[in-house]
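Justification of computing resources. Each target in the renewal requires a structure prediction run like the one illustrated here; the chain below, 230 residues long, is used simply to show the kind of job we budget for.
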Amino acid sequence: MNAGSESSDMYSNGFGPSPCFYVIDRRFKRAAPNGFSPELAIISDDAGQFNVLLHALCWVHANRLFQRILPLNEQHAKEIEWVHTQIWDIYADLKQYKREPTPALKEAIAAHFDELCQTKTSFASLNQALKRLARNKSELLLVLQRPDIPLHNNLSEGDIREYVITRKISGSTRSENGRRCRDTFASLKKTCKKHGISFWEFVIDRLRPQRLIPYLPDLLAGKASLLKAS
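Resulting structure tokens:
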């Protein structure tokens, strides 16, 4: 079994402790019909290519829309700060809901969100941002239907940070085989690191081959089974 198939087997089967799958490659949109569960949740920054399956939006990115608004006077600054406070109050309630979901809290969060989005301020740009927030209600509040999904995509962004830095320094690859090689080894390296496996020892184990380190999809499947059992 080569490294490419080990990596693709590992991720195409969606192994993990929850039915959430964090997607950072638009090619998934073409691959999605080929066996992925329709219950998989995609948490994104509202980029259109990620609007597949059960699509939720990242609350951190949603708040950045308001961070980019520049106030023209002191009143505008106060109104922007008030909106930030309301957003993080709703976020705190959503975290509580994830821990202990109740119908009463669900209804209160939805009502608070609607009240915020219907607010009219003296700042036109802020009003437009609130209208956009309202349009994204179903995706921002998907967690009320699925408390298992995250409220942000910081973990997936952290997973690709090393790849993005390398791309900025070195640029792209010169061939499709080069791209596949880069992506495969970046994926294997990150997976080994997450599970306390030395990537260097993993590579040596596969090259010799000694097979002292378990096949990664089997390792993750075993951990997933233990998590489900607990």
